[in-house]
Every structure is written in structure tokens, then in C-alpha cells.
Specification:
Layout lengths: L1 E4 L3 H14 L1 H32 L4 H37 L9 E5 L3 E6 L2 E6 L3 E7 L2 E6 L3 E6 L6 H14 L18
Antiparallel strand pairs: 1-2, 2-3, 3-4, 5-6, 6-7
Helix pairs in contact: 1-3, 2-3
Length: 192
Amino acid sequence: MEVTYTNTFEDLVDIYTMRYMNNSENKKIIYKGKVAILLSIILITLGLSLIFYQFQRFFVYPILYVGLVTVFIVRITYPDVCESRLREKIIEQLKEVNYKLLLTPIKLNLADGSIKEEKCGNIRIIPWKYVRKVDIHDKKIYLKLGSIDTLIIPEAAFNNVDERDFFTEYVFSHTSLEKKEINRKTLKAINS
């Protein structure tokens, strides 16, 4: 089976964001940043509580509650904040360079042993064992390869829904993965 498509600017941003967020060194940096912020909040909260405890004990509990709520909020939202800032930075960098050169047609040829990707005259052979995750989101098929690479295949690459379904069934028949329909909020699940 052969599929030819061209990624959009948004696809490029998604690809580079996923590559950054899936890199093990970057994951460590993000984790260390989150821990540093949480420790800072805890120390500031305890410091303010001690200062107010000496003067007026009434403010100690509200300060502790605000500190705990802030820690909870940071713990939950920190990865999303990092990802949105990263996306903004990637968008700026892609606009600075001539990103249109990256929007060249890509030809995928699916065979029994591997996926053959042809782009700008370069050929890459991807064995099926490297396909770690397959997700369908927002009229696109995401093939997560290895630890950090992702192929994003738009639905427009297929002539009709039957062809798209045949493609996804072919991919799933050559991997041991299950089919998932996801939304934008759970798109970060691709990064796991």
C-alpha cells in the first residue's frame, strides 16, 4: 500500500513538540523544573506562615491553604504550560527559517516487513517493531516511532474513508497495538 501526503505547518509544530517532550533528557529537565518550583512554593508558604505566626496567627491557615492549592495547581498544569511555551517557541523558530522547505511531499510504502518513507529523495526504512503507538486524532493518524519520532498522516492523504480504514487496519495488523480515538486533551498520551 502506498500513501502520499504533505504535512501542514501545524503538523510540523506537533512533530517537533513531540520530539522535544519525548526526549529523555528533556523529560528530566522538565521534572527538575517542576520540583524546583514546587519546593520554592512550599518554602515561601512556610516562610510567610512563620512570619505571620509571630504577629497575627489568623493569617497562618489561609496562607497554608493557598500554598497547598498552588502546589496542587502547579503539579497538574506544569507539563501543559511547558508544552504550550515550547509550541510558541517552535512556531517562532519555524517562522524564522523557511519552514516551507520542510513541507515537501512524503511517500509511505507499507510492506509486510516495514514502512518505507521517501522524502526529498531520501529513503528511510522503518521496521514494524519500531511503531510503538498509533492514534487517530483530529482527522490525522499519528504513528509514534521509537522513542521520539512521529509520523503524522492527514486524512486528506486518502481518497476516501474506506482507504483510510484499510490503512489503519493494515498498520494494526502488522503491530500488536490497539486502535484508539482520542481528542486534543489526551493527545499528550502519545508522548507516553
